[in-house]
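We store sequence with structure; for instance:
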Amino acid sequence: MLVFSNCKINLGLNVINKRLDGFHNLKTVFYPINWLDALEVIEDDGKKNGFSFSQSGLTIDVPIENNLIYKAWQLINNKTKLPPIKVNLVKRIPMGAGLGGGSSNAAYFITLINSKFELGLSSDDMIQLSAQIGSDCAFFINNKPVFAEGKGDVLSSININLNQYYILLVFPNIYCNTKDAFNNLVYQTPTIELKTIIEKIPIDEWKNNLVNDFEQSIFLKHPKIKELKELFYSEGAIYSSMSGSGSCVFGIFDQEPNLKSFEHYQSFLQKPNNPLF
């Protein structure tokens, strides 16, 4: 069985404070994007039990015990003994980009396994499972735009639809470590609530209102990411921002952007006639 797992961008990201459990309270909007990995699961008849994993495309440089797909398999296998399986992943979504590609792989793996082996897990069951893997993992179960609070796992609906716009994502080949990003964070108090900006303020006014709190510290460490954001605006973006804790930068355009200006980067363009939802 084969599925294609997508990524997301963050529309704004306000980090409120640090929690007693070591995580941070934040507010953001997760928005699904049609940049895809391919994930295949087949039964491994040659083994009595177990999990095997192969990967092509972009390199995943983590030990198997830290692989989010493997963690998802462990959670399910501990509850319901699964047949031995082989997992093949074709990786196209860059890591360390703030796009949630690994979380998406894990969430899609859960839905795939649930369907393939008829486990009977409800959407809520799968959300609870995925929330144990990563803060943004639960978002990918229903894969609709949401307002996220808490550590990114408290999700509620939000009125936002960008399907009439071109959305260009560009990865500058810089890996941003999420832990380091939080350690170097400069806390800021937003003047307008993030959800209010998204739902009430026109998109052509987001530039001066919708903020990603990670940008200040990340731009100091990686000025090329700041230069990339400035390039988006020079090319006519209505709004541009770094996604999550970086390093991918996206731009929202009302007309198709000139991709030649970004040809030296790995990029993806979501067109108005090719939305995810």
Summary: DSSP finds eight helices and ten strands in the chain.
